[in-house]
Amino acid sequence: MVMSIGAVILAAGEGKRLKLDAPKPLAPCLDKKLVDFPLREIQKFFSRNKLQGFRTAVVGHQRELVTAYIANRYADVKFAIQAQQLGTADALRSYFNSSAETHKFDFTLVICADTPVVSELELTEMLKLLVEEKCDAVAATFFEANPSGYGRIIRGKTGFHIVEEKDASDDQRKINEVNSGLYLLKTAYVLEHLKNVDSNNKSGEFYLTDIFKDDLNVKALTFPVGDIFLGVNNLEQLERVEKILRLKKIKELRDHGVRFIDSTHTYIDDEVEVGAGTIIYPNTFLSGKTKIGKNVLIEMGSQIKDSFIADNAQVLTYSILDGARLHIGAQVGPLARLRPGADIGEGAKIGNFVEIKKSVLGKGAKVSHLSYVGDAFIGEETNIGCGFITCNYDGANKNVTKIGKNCFIGSDSQTVAPVEIGDNCFVASSTTITKDMPDGAFAISRTPQVTKEGMAHRFIKKKQ
Ligand code: UD1
Ligand code: MG
């Protein structure tokens, strides 16, 4: 039987305590925004359990920004507007008012936009309980040594109810089992009970938690690790959540055979892929859509963003890669900078203080020291000496340099683009190439040396 679920992301809140310009759902988290996490996990939850349904974000505070962000990235997500933030039950009412379809799903999942650690695994466990025990509603709970701020779980005969911090008695405040704010509900059940929720409480808000009752068929599912439900209300919690997510990512990679020298100082974003046998040193930042192969070496201080690194490649100390591609066995650094479009061929070598931009280097090519290569094609096995520059910019346009295969480009040379050097060419050191060279040519543009014997003393100045 295919089950259907309407998934609701509560994202109407303001998030004042974060002190950011952005509304809370758009607070940064790793290389994403907070709201990306529940949206993604719901998607995984849907596919893993072959569920039908759609995701709806309840938006309110700065809703234009939140809506634009989500709509640009997730074409299928729907929106419900909560005009005033009157409480979580009111937010869910806005959701059910947004379309008749929302009433038809078997179940309704409610998740907050600010709990990025919650994963599809918890959602799946809740679904299992709901189905197997045939109950009407499940709330995820956990034990918290310092429960202040959370709703407390008061267990009853068949069910339970939740008392919010403000409304709790001194005894109730001592209860350590707390509400996570994550619920999976039978849609018929929530529709029936949502009607009766009022705002007769200390906050004057409509509490969604009031739909749980002691004598009804509702279950509190306790999770052993509270960190999963950590909500982001301030910058300290944001930092904690990011640390948890990073450690989770590192554990996942380690379990697949990636070796970390000191994972507490290694920063790997969510979507980065790393192959087995790869060694990652500390103080490295791997971000964006980076994909790293097997048996790769990433030395300390390297920053790698949106890059592809094939098997057996090496990124040596303090190298920066952004939008770069390293083929098998290529070596980069130490202290190299690869900018977008740098494509380093199999076994090719880029050494220290070399910057490469939008350039393709063939197999075995070498640019070993202090050079700038931009908008260039460099052929296989070509060796570029120290201090080489592609003069690619004429102040208005970027021009292309082409160098063939098996060339030797002497140190301190420049190519003034657009220019083309054929295969098997030799450029003498200190040469400025301004004209094309055919295959097998030699070029030199050095000023002849003048040596005047015994004349040095005229130029050597002594301190007064
Ligand atoms: C809520 C729960 C509490 C639980 C805690 C877990 C209620 C009444 N209380 O309290 O039992 O322990 O979460 O973190 O639900 N939101 C809206 N519209 C509103 C109000 C809130 O969209 O009118 C959204 C917020 O943006 C947020 C979520 O709902 O994503 C939770 O709201 P929040 O005000 O943080 O509830 P808590 O007081 O933390
Ligand atoms: Mg909260």
Q: Please, what is the average pLDDT? A: 96
Beta-strand content:
25-35%
CATH class of the largest domain: Alpha Beta
Largest sheet: 16 strands, parallel
CATH architecture of the largest domain: Alpha-Beta Complex
Radius of gyration: 31 Å
**Euclidean distance between termini CA atoms:** 97 Å
The gross shape turns out to be: elongated
The number of helical segments is: 7
**The CATH H-level homologous superfamily of the largest domain:** Spore Coat Polysaccharide Biosynthesis Protein SpsA, Chain A
Total strands: 39
CATH third-tier fold name of the largest domain: Spore Coat Polysaccharide Biosynthesis Protein SpsA, Chain A
- In the predicted model, the low-confidence regions spanning at least 5 consecutive residues are none
Provide the domain count: 2
SS-derived structural category: alpha/beta
Helix content: 10-25%
Bound molecules: uridine-diphosphate-N-acetylglucosamine, magnesium ion
